[in-house]
Amino acid sequence: MSTVALAPAAALTVLSLTLAWRPPSLHPAWSARVLVVLSTTTALTVSTTVAFIAAVFIAGQLPAEAVAATSQGRLLLEHAPIPAYPGLLAIALLAVGAFCTIRLAYRWWRDLQTVRQHTSGISDHDQPIAMAVPGHHGGVLVSRGLLRLLTREQLQVVFRHEHAHLRHRHHLYGSVSAFAASIFPPLAWVHRSVRLALERWADEDAAATVGDRTLVAHTIAQVALASPKSSTSWHPALANSHVVQRVEALLSDAPSTNRVAGPALLSGAGVATSGVTSSAFQLNHVFLLLVL
Amino acid sequence: MSRRKLGQLEAEVLAVLAGADGYLSTSELCERLNGDPAYTTVNTILFRLLDKKMVERSQRGRAFVYRLLVDESEIAAERMFGHLRVASDPSHVLSQFAHGLNNSEAAALRAVLNENRNQNEESP
């Protein structure tokens, strides 16, 4: 097994993490799309590569006659032997990915069940809470604390923001990138950027309809400052909230609604990464294994 | 309109009602909503919101008119976050409008707001 087989996975990982770290100056709607495409293809490529390494390693450990009896087995043996260290590492990565994915799926399902029981309405909560509830009977959940805190104009901002989440199906982007991050944990950094881009997207949507960027910025700031303090995390980059970045962005100029750059970068990223992903599939004989 | 979109339209109706001074009738609401939703659909949404005590209704002539209910005493709030740890959002799929800040973030946010205020005063 040559190290060339690792190249696509490594290249995509580096590209995703670079873009998550230094997002291109696009409208957040396009950043979100590009990042979701990248994290999905990266997760697919990495997981097939790792699965292949694990399969070759396991085939190498089994008795040679039994494995060579089948054509798949002979294919795997061609790439053997894999040293113990990377082989075990691949198995460990697969196990971690599978565990995190199952855990995320369970939590996702439970959270949606819980909010959907209440679909939308007003909660008796003193904290200012507003969230979009996706799905058939979805809507907007707000708390008494929020209604007490904000003026009618500011409430309009909140409802527009949540409406944008529902209209553009942001929960789908969020869950796809969350699943990618659970398959391959380093993509959690990309997931963070996706979440920021989605919030920014909804902010910009709200600002465009309301027609007042400062009002949106001040509403976010007011709600965040009135919310209970979050615990201090050991590193500022891991903090849960993107509030400061969102407010800063709203107080500066509107993002360019360049109709070329975003779609161009997205299709470019799509074509390039699907090329890399399929080359990874070929290198790893995924198709051959599937067909056989 | 598919049922999938009812929640989305509900959010938009709330936004329009929040932005309006006083009461709006169903037809006035229809005019202000995007995508020209059906009168009956908007009425369905209004009944749902009325049921949840998020809007209040009054009568103007023969038509019902609605407005957002923000008066504390009238709001019927449900206890619904008891078992849902929304604040931490373990699945990272649902997201709140704005999360709480830690001390350094709050300081940074105040700095951003002050800086913006100063700039506006210098160049009105």
User: Considering DSSP H and I runs of 4 or more, what fraction of the residues of chain A is helical?
Assistant: over 70%
General form of chain B? elongated
The low-confidence runs of chain B, each spanning 5 or more residues with pLDDT under 50, are: none
Could you say what the CATH architecture of the domain at 3-73 in chain B is? Orthogonal Bundle
Mean pLDDT of chain B: 80
H/E element sequence of chain B:
HEHHEEH
Keywords:
heterodimer, A: 292 residues, mainly alpha, 72% helix, B: 124 residues, 3-stranded antiparallel beta sheet, 3 strands
Characterization of the model:
The complex is a heterodimer of chains A (292) and B (124). Chain A has 292 residues and is mainly α. Chain A has helices at residues 7-21, 28-61, 64-68, 71-79, 84-118, 144-149, 152-167, 170-183, 188-210, 213-226, 243-251, 261-283, 286-291, and strands at residues 121-123, 130-133, 139-143. Chain A has one domain (3-291). Chain A has a three-stranded mixed sheet with strand order 1-3-2, with helices on both faces. The longest helix of chain A has 35 residues, at 84-118. The model of chain A is unreliable at 234-238 (pLDDT under 50). Chain B has 124 residues and is α+β, with helices and mostly antiparallel strands. Helix content of chain B is 44%, strand content 11%. Chain B is built from four helices and three strands; from the N terminus they run H-E-H-H-E-E-H. A three-stranded antiparallel sheet of chain B has the order 1-3-2. Chain B is elongated and about 55 Å long. The mean pLDDT of chain B is 80. Chains A and B meet through helix 5, strand 1, strand 2, strand 3 and helix 6 of A and helix 1 and helix 4 of B.
